[in-house]
Design goal:
single chain, Cuticle protein, signal, cuticle, 8 strands, 3 helices, Insect_cuticle, elongated, alpha+beta, about 30% helix, two-stranded antiparallel sheet, structural constituent of cuticle
Length: about 200
């Protein structure tokens, strides 16, 4: 395999390099008065040392073998199905069918309009003449809620503004006690002819 090839190749190179180094040291050593024969180390000893060095280097360079993690099997949990109210609604993408749509001709401020859809939404609207040439409109609309209930809103639009009545509208909290005192003071000032400008400063008579 690849590891064995690397091992053999490295062993050959290092063996050659070490032999050259030892030979160079032997040549460079000071010579005695009488020439002595250069004694090189035994080839078997050099080879044994090289094998040990290369083996250590290869083992250090090789990636450690890590056992694959064993995942414990966890039994699947069974979640209880949530209890939901059964509400009849239109499927997504299903067209809404108009059950009733009638609008009378508009004569001045007088008209009637009625609309009913098969998803529970309904609307009625009518107009009439109001005082001093004004018009009065009133009507109602019904919307099915997600909890199975139906919300109905009745409204009127006349010279007093737009007003809506429904038990599904939020109720404002009661006004603090000092508000009643401020309203009483304002009424007394108006009765006394005291007025204020847009900046809140009193207008001198």
């Amino acid at each position: 395999n690849t590891t064995n090839d690397i091992y053999k190749h490295t062993l050959s190179i290092m063996k050659f390099v070490i032999v050259l180094c030892l030979f160079g040291l032997a040549l460079g050593a000071p010579r005695p008065q009488e020439e002595e024969a250069v004694v090189l180390p035994d080839e078997d000893i050099v080879e044994a040392i090289l094998e040990e060095v290369v083996k250590t280097a290869v083992e250090a360079a090789a990636p450690p073998l890590v056992a694959a993690p064993v995942e414990a099997e966890v039994p699947p949990t069974i979640d209880a199905a949530p209890v939901q109210a059964v509400i009849k609604t239109k499927a997504e993408g299903e067209p809404v069918v108009v059950l009733l749509q009638e609008t009378s001709p508009v004569i001045g401020a007088v008209f009637t309009h009625e609309l009913q859809l098969d998803n529970g939404i309904a609307e009625t609207r009518s107009g009439s003449e109001g005082p001093a040439g004004t018009s009065v409109m009133k009507g109602s609309y019904t919307i099915p809620l997600g909890n199975g209930e139906v919300a109905t809103f009745n409204w009127v639009a006349d010279e007093n503004g737009y007003r809506v009545e429904s038990p599904h509208l939020p109720i404002a909290p009661p006004a603090p006690a000092h508000v009643a005192d401020l309203l009483r003071i304002a009424a007394e000032q108006r009765a006394a002819g005291i007025t204020f400008d847009g900046q809140g400063s009193r207008v001198q008579a």
